[in-house]
Amino acid sequence: MFSLGRVPGVAFVLVALFGLFASTSGNFFTAANVSNILVQSSILLLLALPMTFIIMTEGLDLSAGAVLTLCSVVLAAVTLGTGSLTVAFLAALAIGVAFGLLNGWIIAWPGIPPFVATLGTLGIAQGLCLVITDGQSIVGMPPSLQSVYSGTLAGIPIPIIMAGVAYAVMHGILYHTRLGTYVSALGGNREALRHAGINDRLVLAVIYGIGGLMSGVAALLLTSRISSAHPTAAIGMEFDAIAAVAVGGTQFERGEGWLLGTLLGVIAIGVLRNGLNLLGTSSSVQVICVGLLVIFALFLDGLRSAER
Amino acid sequence: MSTMIETKETAPRFGLSLSSDFTNMLLRLLAVAIICIMLTFATDAFLTTNNLLNVLRQASLVFFMASGLTLVILTGKIDLSIGATVGLCACVAAVVIKTTGSPWIGAAVAVSIGGAVGLANGLMVTQLRIPSFIATYGMLWVAQGVTYYFMGGQSVYGFPAGFRALGSGYFLGIPIPIYLMIIVLLIGSFFINRTTFGQQIYAMGANTTAARLSGIPVNSRLNLVFMLSGAMAGMASLIFLARLNSAEGDVGESLTLPTIAAVVIGGTSLFGGVGSLSGTFIGGLILTLILNGMNLLSLNANWQPFVTGVIVLLAVWLDMKTRSKTDAGN
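^ inputs. structure came back:
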């Protein structure tokens, strides 16, 4: 899977973006801002890692942003209700896993196409967010929650540590366990996997379940970052996650995935959004730019595969 | 998987399968009747001429957006950008009508922008070979971003009375959108059932390879279908605009799920080759009736995305279940 032929693609994009912003904005290439980009990218990485697995199985999870938002809402509501951050975090993880398994179940067993299955659960999660919060923000979080996002451990920001651990675990799963082999096989050759006696549906359910679990973990960072929960806080974040996976060189139809590419893709999008922010660009223009970046990356991909 | 392909090949609208399409339609009409009876007993506000006309008008708006999408889904592709395209066209048309004072120019611009967005979708799918759910999902966000940027947080409102009649006027006591819907339904059904292009759409959805081998120019047909779907979204945006009498950047945001819901409730298969425009009309009607009922029973509107999501999943699940049964029968 470590085909060197694909390295330059994302790396080139990343270097180009870095050079572009470093030359146009004096505040961009500073230690504080670079660290800022990495911290901001940590939440996106938590969504993009399982999204890589999911896209490798020729799937898609459009509900990731809405489920993350729901987990955040639940986290805040339970924190207010019980006063215990641990209970609240466990509740958020449980909700995330429940939605992940729901996605996996309806995709694996009845065989509903992933984009429409997760569009349905997107509606369900978004509806629950609105119902729980009645469209309002949940505020009044304890200071201990805030220190998760802004705190450091041995000098390294906690969000970066969490994202790093998540990356290491997902990397281990994908490249060093049987489950990882199954993930590759699901996209490349599902029939063969079935003939080998593997319960391919269970594997799918587990993969989407991991996605839900990661949304729960990301909810801790998201809620801590804004010290509150808002019913539309992360709606649409799955777009950035899918974009990062696409920019990172994972194929949508052949089961070929590249986790390091996803990491670079996440940083590329973090750099793009941060740089545009510093230039004072509105978020609507940022979305357009992310879209164009994806189309450009897929276009390059098409050219490169045509050359081979 | 092999059974699925077989149905696709044998399902088109001749002979035996006609009767199963007919039963599917009857089942959906039965669902409409049951919902109506339940709502009649549940609330006095349901069975009034005003409310029923309101439901039909609402259903016609859903139908306009979903009709183009039905064609795309019949080819086995998907267009997730319909809602965002409607929003973009509505906003641009609003500004054009405001500045030029001419609804005609606004209409022309809306339909052309819709068509252009659709063509861009088609080209991404046919030329760059990006899966349609990815390409149109990206387009969703790009179109939404352009809309927000274009509107800059402003809203545009107050259009000429003649234009507003398109969405909120009456003719012989019946809302004008209902007439428009009937016209689109008749022309559209004639188009897909009685023209070569229409039959090619079914053939491509049933089996793309077979369609290509039998000489159908698949790529150019797909581009046209996506373009048609975008242009229909442009038309829908006009009726939307005329009805709302105002446009804001977020107008298309909540339209994606209901539009897809209408098509799948109407029995059009997400795998292509099976379905009809009249099914999509009934699908939109069922969705509108349920949302109208929730409204009349004063259920919190916050539940609407939840309910729509559940209905989409149930509809697709039921549809796949009944289809796998007919497969076994064949």
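Chain B touches chain A through 43 residues (CB under 8 Å). Chain B has one domain: 2-324.
thumbs up if we can close this ticket
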